[in-house]
Amino acid sequence: MIIIPAIDVIGGACVRLRQGSYDDTTVYNDDPVTVAKRFVDAGAGRIHLVDLDAAAGRGDNRKTFERVRHAVSCVLELGGGIRSLEGIRKALELGMDYAIVGTVLAQEPDAVGQWAADYGSRMIASIDARDGKVQIAGWQEKTGIDPVELAAAAGKMGCAAVQYTNIARDGMLTGPDIAGTLRIAQATSIPVILSGGISATSDIDTIRMESNGRIAGVIVGRALYEGRFNLADAIRRTAGREG
After folding, report:
1. pTM for this one?
2. Looking at 51, 53, 128, 170, which residue is catalytic?
3. Among this protein's residues, is 8 annotated catalytic?
């Protein structure tokens, strides 16, 4: 199981939201490059990058992520506002190892399936849900889509992995939704990554014990920034370095 620290960016700064609300934003660092280097120094072999401005349709942070790419050699995955084949190509041209698709996966699964013929090994399906239904557009819009069904479809398309977030847990430090993530894992043959709710380093031991190898990775955000989660210790516990 790999541990993946997250860097969410608004206006070039490293931030965290609570339950995806742009009205509840905490700025943790003005320089994501510094944060990325710190994560790599702690042993991270993979970093989860999110362009929250692009996700909300209000510009992008392309130059910031380009600086991150030049600064670190670990695996980088980028999500937020990637809703077209051109968007996938641009992310990969930036030097990203994976492009994350969420909104477009829910809205245009047939198109994503076609893109996967060429880029599936470098596409990660992001499935974000609240009250058992997928939400899109930076978590601002509801759908009637079942996340388990969408995960099954992503696997059939040939995406590299699924990242599942229980929005109600995200940024709340209330503990991960292991049961919900396992339902996703049971529905698809591709690796599944848990996101949201991590509150302490010990959560990693709980996830490993309860998942029995069915959860391939964990994304960690607010707990890491607030000093509740020891990244180096978690990586040592899981032997989770990638790259």
Report:
1. 0.94
2. 128
3. yes
